[in-house]
Structure prediction request, 255 residues.
Amino acid sequence: MHILVTNDDGVQAPGLLALANALDGLGKITILAPDRNWTASGHVKTLERPLRVRSVTLADGRPALTTDGAPADCVALALLGVIPEPIDLIVSGINNGENIGQDLTYSGTVTAAMEAVIAGLPGIAVSQQRPPGNGAEIDFTTAAAAARQVVERFLRYGIPPGVLLNVNVPYLPDGKPHGIQITRQGQRIYRDALVKRLDPRDRPYYWIGGEAPTGVPEPGTDYGALAEGYISVSPIQLDMTAYPVLETLRTWEWE
Ligand code: MN
Prediction:
């Protein structure tokens, strides 16, 4: 078993090291991750500029590879030959912040797992819910154990082709999660607000800010599981077709 570990927070992010260390012993671990933070960059494939890959050392001395490409580029580079040995599984994370509901369309963490699925390999994305407030320290211990459990289950049971697993771990100030819930993708409620300011030359600039998003706490969803203090594991597929609307569109009296 050869596991590629990547992320979107950058190769030196503590969540990546926690993930790699948690998976030790389950197979050979190779790390190829971005050299900068690609949070909320979406599913990027870099086609218009060259990509460099170089060796780095992580905080505990662990070797890794890094690139100036995006998370999905890391997966593509690895699978297309930068990593000569065949890869069996891609695990992305542990992200600093949960990726639930419509976050999946923004998340670099999840798009790395999507890129794996597109290439015909299994992908697992792991994210840790943030504590309230900016700049708070994140403890990845629980999420690292959850990631290991999910990968162990993957090794035992497998994942069907075309499916990635999206794992989210709740932030609980005291105590551990109550367990694991298998969930579907839920609904985010974004509270974005536009900040308009003037630069030193009196030209306006804009910053998308606002309060942290919430979500619809519906049982059985990713957001619902986190709200109840459970780890959420969602099987995600890339077919975004709105099947109930297929027949409706066919009745539109096309020429
Ligand atoms: Mn991130």
Q: What stands out?
A: Residues 141-157 form the longest helix (17 residues). The chain has a mean pLDDT of 96.
